Amino acid sequence: MTQAAVPLPATPELRIPIREILPWAVFIGVLALVVLYFVSTEQGALALFSNGYVHEFVHDGRHLLAFPCH
């Protein structure tokens, strides 16, 4: 069983462009913090909105993430 060794083609070096990713990472981080605020503390004395619409909209998600709300 003689087989000729076939050389594999050289794989190009993978580079991650940090300067292009950083603004998106910051944006996603800020967006995640805003969502976390609305899910966790948007009710009662810390409420930004006077109606209970935000609370009712994220109510099931709040219980799913183990945040007490009532």
Question: What labels would you give this structure?
Answer:
membrane; transmembrane; CbtB_put; 70 residues; transmembrane helix; mainly alpha; Cobalt transporter subunit (CbtB); elongated
Notes on the protein architecture:
With 70 residues, this protein is mainly alpha-helical. The protein has a domain at 36-70. It is 49% helix and 0% strand. It is built from three helices and no strands. The chain has helices at residues 18-40, 53-57, 59-64. The mean pLDDT is 79.
State the end-to-end distance: 74 Å
Unreliable segments of 5+ consecutive residues: none
The helix count comes to: 3
Instruction: Give the tally of β-strands.
Output: 0
InterPro entries: CbtB_put
Transmembrane segments: 21-39
Pfam family, one: CbtB
Keywords: Membrane, Transmembrane, Transmembrane helix
Quickly describe the structure:
The protein is an all-alpha fold and 70 residues long. The protein has helices at residues 18-40, 53-57, 59-64.
Write the layout of secondary structure elements.
Elements: H1 18-40, H2 53-57, H3 59-64
